[in-house]
Each structure stands twice: as C-alpha cells, then as structure tokens.
Amino acid sequence: MVPASHLLDVGIIVVMTVVIWVGSSWLEGASEQLSEHYGLPQVVQGSVVAAVGSSFPELATVAFAALLTNSLGLGVGAVVGSAVFNVLVIPAVAAVATEDNIESNRMLVYKEAQFDMLAVSVLVITFAMAVIYYPDTSVDYLPNAHG
Questions:
Q1: 92, 56 in Cβ contact below 8 A?
Q2: Predicted local distance difference test score (pLDDT) of residue 14
Q3: Distance between alpha carbon 51 and the CA centroid of its chain, in Å?
Q4: H/E element holding 20?
Q5: CA-CA distance, 23 to 26, in Å (whole number)?
Q6: Contact (CB, 8 A) for 116 and 87
Q7: DSSP H or E stretch at residue 42
Q8: For the chain, give me the number of helices (H) and strands (E)?
C-alpha cells in the first residue's frame, strides 16, 4: 500500500506537469507573436524569448527550494545540470531521431566551442568569487601547526 503522502506528491507532480505543458504552449504562441510584431529573426525568438520563458519554471523551483533549505548547492546543481542536459542531451537525441543528415563544418564547431568556453569560464569565475567572498568557515583549510 502506497502512503497517502506519496500519492499526494505524485498528484502534485502530474498536475504541475500539465500546467507547465499548457503554459509552454502559451509561451510558444506568445513568443511567435512577439517576434512577428517586432520583426525578430527566428534564431532570436528561439534563443532568447522562448529560452528565457521555458527556463522560468526551473528558476522558480530552484529559487523556492533554495530559500526553504538555504542551500546554494541545490541551485548550482540544478542550473549546471540543466545546462549540460540542454547542450549535450537534447542535440544528441535530435540528431539520432532525425532521418535527415545533420551537417556541420569547422566554422560552426569553432563558434560553438568559443561560446562553451566562455560559459565555462564565467561559471568558474562565479564559483571562485563565491569561495573568496563567502568562504566556509567551518572547515580548517590549513593544517594545524601544533599537532
């Protein structure tokens, strides 16, 4: 027998999945209308308008959980995990699922590699700043000279 609390959790997950699914459909329609109204290219619509809107539920969930648990690691893990999934898994599944050949060239890989290196550098600098300005004082980083 499944405890009632687990059934409630599953019910909440199902309801929120439906809400996010419907909301993302509305977001897609709204982003198309915005891009047509302002004359934005499709790449801007997909990479800015839709990407920001589709990431908002994740941002809200992470912010809410981080406020409740006071955990920076939870937010960092969710953001990094999402970025890795979006950059590696989604294109890989799309490439495997399509019947068309996906073409690439040296310039495309070069441009993407530059963006990836920039993103990783910003992440490393952010972590470094967090460690420098908010160190964990409960850990003794230097060995005790007296023994």
A1: no
A2: 92
A3: 10
A4: helix 4-38
A5: 5
A6: yes
A7: helix 42-44
A8: 6, 0
Q: What is the pLDDT of residue 68?
A: 79
Token code pair at residue 54: 């589709």
Mean pLDDT per segment of 10 residues, for the chain of length 147 residues?
A: 79 88 82 83 72 72 76 73 77 81 78 80 85 78 60
Q: How many other CB atoms are there within 10 angstroms of residue 94's CB atom?
A: 10
Length of the chain: 147
Taking the domains of the chain in order of start, what are their residue ranges? Answer: 4-133
Residue 108 half-sphere exposure, CB side, CA atoms within 13 Å?
A: 4
Spatial distance between the Cα atoms of 3 and 36, rounded to a whole number of angstroms: 50
Least Cα distance to 46 among 33, 34, 31 occurs for: 31
Q: What is the DSSP letter of 39?
A: T
Is 84 in contact with 116 (CB distance < 8 Å)? no
Q: Which residues of 2-28 are buried (b: 16+ CB within 10 A; e: fewer)?
A: eeeeeeeeeeeeeeeeeeeeeeeeebb
For position 115, what pLDDT does the model report? 79
